[in-house]
């Protein structure tokens, strides 16, 4: 078996150069709700430990997941079925799986409201398909119970096996229950402090804050908005709840022209993803890059793999001053760089002061 690195990446680079002219259009106005969020209005994460039953022999192997047996014993004892320690250890629970249940509690959620939950296996269950989650308490970071979940699990994957061969499509050890939890407790959400509300930009930018304050004051009246710093905006809002809701409904739809962001290159070496915004440019530089290829030959069972790394003579590419993103993409593409090579090239350019952008590795 041979793995050739970089083919899909080079196609992506060519596509980026093709669509670049579309990205270099003037910045359009965006709504305030797309650039900022209201301070104090946020989701709250919930988590709980649960048991899934009704599986078709695809549950946990109790010899390797003793916590599943312990959880089932505790649940049965709460229902009046007391097992001795010896009986509990002999339980064969191939139709049962231990899971973690997670959910997001939306702001202003009230008791009785249904929310979606995600169920993820924490043992060695082969599949949660067809299972039913038993009543599970979902707790917040303060240890209080905010919701209770139960229901039939929807799993998007499917799998089959026979004669030692298995075929799996998508993921089988996680699923969702739409509306599977009921809110039992309200999280107090304070909207503003006294007469003021505060919006926080997703990313700090003094230019965007200034533009937002100007746009809001023009739409809602002078003195309505005031800049606090490079992220926060204070709004003078009506006192009554009804008028305040109507005020927020208008403010969050005010169109704002964001300022152009910082030139940045984001690289993910694990996935080979490289993203550069339109402000990336280069100073005069010369890049020497060896034609690096990595070939992996799978060996015989038990003999390991034969890994070979080869580097031929390099090529020289000159990049002119003030190169745009299209020029950068074209130059790196001509080098035939795969993601790992590109990361090394960009780091060297940054160290030499030739890359006019922030380099971020994620």
Short description, anyone?
The chain is α+β, with helices and mostly antiparallel strands and 362 residues long. Helices cover 25% and strands 36% of the residues.
Helical amount: 10-25%
Query: Helices and strands: which structural class?
Result: alpha+beta
Give the domain tally. 3
For the report, how would you describe the main beta sheet? 6 strands, antiparallel, barrel
Number of strands: 21
Total helical segments: 8
Percentage of residues in strands: 35-45%
Rg for CA atoms: 28 Å
Could you give the topology of this structure?
Elements: H1 7-23, E1 30-31, H2 32-35, E2 36-38, E3 44-53, H3 66-78, H4 85-89, E4 97-105, E5 114-121, E6 132-139, E7 145-152, E8 158-162, E9 165-169, E10 174-183, E11 196-201, H5 206-220, E12 225-227, E13 232-236, H6 241-251, E14 255-256, E15 264-268, E16 273-276, E17 281-282, E18 285-298, E19 305-319, H7 325-334, H8 339-352, E20 355-356, E21 358-361
Parallel strand pairs: 15-21
Antiparallel strand pairs: 1-14, 2-11, 3-4, 3-6, 4-5, 5-10, 6-7, 7-10, 8-9, 11-13, 12-13, 15-16, 17-20, 18-19
Helix pairs in contact: 1-7
